[in-house]
Amino acid sequence: MNISKVGVVGSGIMGSGIAEVAMISGFEVVLRSRRQESAVSMVGAIERSLAKRVERQKMTAEDARDALARLLATTDIDELGDCDLVIESVVEDLEVKRHLFEHLDRIVKPHAILATNTSTLPVVDMAMATKRPDSVCGIHFFNPAVAMTLVEVVRPLTASEDTIQAALNFAKVCGKEPVLVKDEAGFVVNALLFPYLNNAVRLYERGVATAIEIDKSMKLGCGFPMGPLALLDLVGLDTSIAILDALYKEFGDPGSLAAPTLRRMVAAGHLGKKSRHGFYDYH
Ligand SMILES: NC(=O)c1ccc[n+]([C@@H]2O[C@H](COP(=O)([O-])OP(=O)(O)OC[C@H]3O[C@@H](n4cnc5c(N)ncnc54)[C@H](O)[C@@H]3O)[C@@H](O)[C@H]2O)c1
Asked: What is the distance between the alpha carbons of residues 146 and 14, in angstroms, rounded to a whole number?
């Protein structure tokens, strides 16, 4: 299966990161946003990120120009029609993703792979919304997509071996280390990570320590690169609740029952870094 043109749907934190990874790895990329202003702002963000790579001598100015020339940012979903692989990275909501898969199935050429960047949701439910369930899988990047090396390739019961091999190969061409995982909520990383992050919020709720001290404790005590509350801010508190809800729904483990403070913060619009307010303020 030859992949040369990659579509990315959703221009949030992860969509733009995945688009950038694919561009710098030599793929032609179509990045689809619902709104023109998001498309324009994503191109700006990618330009700034590439400029930083040039500054840090991670790529030449010429390679950065070539990468940008491979990007088409559009609001027109039909532009994804001739992509060989489309990765959706829209909001973590199963109904939204199922509708999107059903739509993509109608407009993207036959035999192209349709993939999801979901953190926790059942990939098989998205596959079954299409008439090509054998060509659907999960390709789960980590945040920030450009910096993190792991990709979980998720195999739903319906996926063909060709689809899985093509997804593994795509991740490798992107310079990533793929692991193949079963289609089970949270896969490997989030199934282990999120109960821990949720417990950090409970400590914070009980006033065991301040946010700064909780994060400092895990950095200095466990050698983690960042503390749990700063990590929740980076992931996005709305996305974090969606991940916890999916884990709780699948396993019924009380450790995944989202801490009330998380829900209150999201209700207040405090989504973490992306809204500039979370456990910390960002200016
Ligand atoms: N944030 C992370 O650390 C992280 C890491 C890996 C995977 N993911 C997954 O990536 C996906 C996107 O997460 P994100 O962090 O980029 O979220 P985000 O909130 O930054 O972006 C969400 C995107 O979805 C779009 N969207 C919202 N409602 C929509 C709708 N009804 N129809 C179509 N598009 C809609 C938004 O316009 C935006 O472009 C989710 O499935 C999430 O689980 C997130």
From this structure: 10
pLDDT > 70 in the chain, percent: 100
Q: What is the pLDDT of residue 61?
A: 96
**Whether 41 and 155 share a structural domain:** yes
Q: Give the model's pLDDT for residue 252.
A: 97
Alpha-carbon dihedral of residues 49, 230, 117, 87, nearest 10 degrees?
-20
| Residues 258 and 193 occupy one common structural domain | yes
The CATH number of the domain holding residue 230 is 1.10.1040.10
* SS3 assignment, position 178: strand
Same domain? 100 vs 215: no
Mean pLDDT, range 81-103, rounded to an integer: 98
Whether 142 and 241 map to the same domain: the answer is no
Asked if 140 is an active-site residue, the reply is yes
Helix, strand, coil in percent for the chain, rounding step 5: 50, 15, 35
Cα separation of 31 and 6, whole Å? 9
Indicate yes or no: pTM above 0.85. Answer: yes
d(CA 68, CA 218): 39
pLDDT at residue 1 greater than cutoff 80: no
Are 210 and 160 in the same domain?
A: no
Q: Are 276 and 282 in contact (CB under 8 A)?
A: yes
Catalytic-residue membership of 152: yes
Residue nearest to atom 30 of ligand 1 (CA): 96
Rounded to whole angstroms, what are the CA distances from 245 to 118, 155, 220? 13, 21, 30
CB 130 within 8 A of CB 114: yes
In the predicted model, is pLDDT for residue 11 greater than 90?
A: no
User: Considering the domain boundaries, does residue 158 fall inside one?
Assistant: yes
Instruction: Please say if 217 is a catalytic residue.
Output: no
- CA-derived radius of gyration, the chain: 19
For atom 27 of ligand 1, the residue with the nearest CA is 91
